[in-house]
From TrEMBL:
Organism: Hyphomonas chukchiensis
EC supergroup of this enzyme: ligase
Cell location: Cytoplasm
Calcium found in the keyword field: no
Pfam families assigned to the protein according to its UniProt record, in alphabetical order: Dala_Dala_lig_C, Dala_Dala_lig_N
Function: Cell wall formation.
Molecular function via GO: ATP binding; D-alanine-D-alanine ligase activity; metal ion binding
Domain of life: Bacteria
Binding note for cofactor: Binds 2 magnesium or manganese ions per subunit.
Protein name per UniProt: D-alanine--D-alanine ligase
Reaction catalysed by this enzyme: 2 D-alanine + ATP = D-alanyl-D-alanine + ADP + phosphate + H(+)
Protein family per UniProt: Belongs to the D-alanine--D-alanine ligase family.
Pathway: Cell wall biogenesis; peptidoglycan biosynthesis
Length: 302
């Protein structure tokens, strides 16, 4: 019987989401017949893994350290096959500016952007409003600010004591319209989901609180938009060098028929409200089967 270490938790801003994802995956892995050990990842993760002696690591971590290439590098050094993307792809996808450079080279449709520090972004508008300010390397919409058209001043929240998302930011053209997402498993794009929410945008609460958003699958879109989104998600996955499961997020301005890729998540959520499990179910793959697929797809470079 294959022994699987499910690593989750950690200490990033996405710890609570990771605990939920990891717990769900561990439960499914046991139901699929694997010998499962759960590990709340600490800075002594190497020792935790050595003690657990797994055959495979199922990575349920989210956010910095867990999905930016750091833990992937540790697992490579230890020679442990692990789920999801490798070191370089994880690092590229986590950095929004670097991933957009890859998208640009691959000919994918992107929004205009500019690298700024938080002091610069608070001092003057880096782009003409409306625009969005995002931390370069955070997930789950942490630290995202929307500057609306007609805003008299740039976002002063960036200088407040509650800002914990670093100094390196990206200002990005705001794309009006619809929020879309596409999951990819290996070499297959799954489906297009439209996400609707009554909140200002698809923020952390909309993503993870019950009733925070609604997922329409398949999205009610013109056929050419569905095809373009699925094609772009797969191309992004391949251009970044990803493996396993990813999820790419898009905005679609239906008034201008403009589709733009925003980012690719190499550690998509695996909670009850998560999008990739919903898309997998839509194409006939149960949650248990999805987790088993991730385990069997695990690899490393040793």
């Amino acid at each position: 019987m294959k022994r699987v270490a499910v690593i989750y938790g950690g200490w990033s801003s996405e710890r609570e989401v990771s605990l939920s994802s990891g717990g769900q995956m561990a439960k499914a892995a046991r139901a699929a017949g694997y010998d499962v050990v759960e590990i709340d990842a600490g800075r002594d993760l190497a020792a935790q893994l050595s003690e657990a002696e797994p055959d495979v690591v199922l990575n349920g971590l989210h956010g910095p350290w867990g999905e930016d290439g750091c833990v992937q590098g540790l697992l490579e050094v230890m020679g442990l096959p692990y789920s999801h993307s490798g070191v370089l792809a994880s690092a590229l996808a986590m950095d929004k500016l670097k991933s957009k450079a890859v998208y640009r080279e691959a000919g994918l449709p992107i929004a205009a952007d500019k690298r700024v520090t938080r002091v610069e972004a608070a001092a003057s508008h880096p782009l003409k409003p409306p625009y969005v300010v995002k931390p370069v390397a955070e997930g789950s919409s942490f630290g995202v600010l929307i500057v609306r058209e007609g805003a008299n001043s740039p976002p002063q929240e960036l200088l407040g004591s509650s800002w914990h998302y670093g100094d390196n930011l990206m200002a990005e053209e705001f794309i009006p319209g619809r929020e879309l997402t596409v999951g990819v498993l290996g070499d297959r794009a799954l489906a297009v989901t439209e996400i609707t929410t009554l909140r200002d945008y698809y923020d952390f609460d909309a993503k993870y609180q019950a009733g925070g958003s609604q997922h329409v699958i398949p999205a009610n879109l013109p056929a050419h938009v569905t095809e373009a989104a699925m094609d772009a998600a797969l191309r992004a996955h391949q251009a970044l060098g990803c493996r396993g499961a990813t999820r790419s997020d898009f905005r679609y301005d239906d008034k201008r028929d403009r589709l733009v890729i925003l980012e690719t998540n190499t550690q998509p959520g695996m909670t009850p409200t998560s999008l990739v499990p919903e898309q997998a179910a839509f194409v006939g793959m149960s949650f248990e089967a999805l987790v088993a697929w991730m385990i069997e797809d695990a690899s490393c470079q040793r």
